[in-house]
Amino acid sequence: MHIDIITVLPELLESPFGHSIMKRAQEKGLLVVKTHALRQWAVNEYGQVDDYQYGGGAGMVLMCEPLVNAIEALSKERKYDGIIYLTPDGQTLQQSMANQLSMKENLLLICGHYKGIDQRIRDHYITREISIGDYVLSGGELAAAVLVDAIGRLLPGVLNNETSALTDSFQDNLLAPPVYTRPAEFKGWKIPDILLSGDLKK
Questions:
Q1: What is the average pLDDT across 80-86?
Q2: Nearest Cα residue to 162 out of 21, 53, 23
Q3: Structural domain spans, the chain
Q4: Which of 62, 118, 183, 187 is buried deepest, with most CB atoms within 10 A?
Q5: How far apart are CA 145 and CA 126, in angstroms?
Q6: Is 23 exposed, middle or buried (0-12, 13-18, 19+ CB in 10 A)?
Q7: Residues 6+ apart with CB under 8 A from 131
Q8: Packing angle of the helix pair 141-152, 20-27 (nearest 10 deg)
Q9: Strand, coil or helix: what is 113?
């Protein structure tokens, strides 16, 4: 799977993809995540990618021109199965959505910033809008990291034990049960006897 991410602050995404499972997924060649700094498509030599919003109000808005140029430049390199905008008013991310997206080949994620992106980009380019919850972040970068992690861990071969992802919370619309590990007794706290019975089904 190949995921491109357009962002004003690519530095915010270095750590989430440079460690643990996402790092191993990329080292195995199962996942490619590339961040693209929006400012390389800035409208002037000062690196401008945002401007004041029409109608007044506090906060800046990411402009049409840089985003269009970025989307069209990247779309020349590959055909995207979806162009996703991370936004608080999008569809709330759920496990079923991550399952569905994990079967795609190429995704383009757009991280909003400031007061968001010009509505015309949403009207003409975005194919799906996703929120990771009913709250506001400083930008879409952390939401993009959450989405990529939720998708990436589902790719075949990413987890050492592939059945692990199938028994995660929400896969069967339920939460995972309590889990225990050794020792069976600690400070007088014992694990349920049924876990020592050897009967996996029970």
A1: 98
A2: 21
A3: 2-152
A4: 62
A5: 18
A6: middle
A7: 86, 87, 88, 89, 90, 91, 92, 93, 143
A8: 60
A9: strand
In three-state secondary structure terms, 34 is strand
| Rg (alpha carbons) of the chain, rounded to whole number | 21
Count CA within 13 A, CB hemisphere, residue 139: 19
Rounded Cα distance between 42 and 12, Å, is 19
- CA nearest 63: which of 48, 74, 73? 48
Q: Tell me the pLDDT tens digit for each residue of 140-173.
A: 999 999 999 999 999 999 987 655 555 565 566 6
Q: What is the pTM of this model?
A: 0.89
| CA–CA dist 62, 116 (Å, integer) | 6
- Mean pLDDT value of segment 173-196: 89
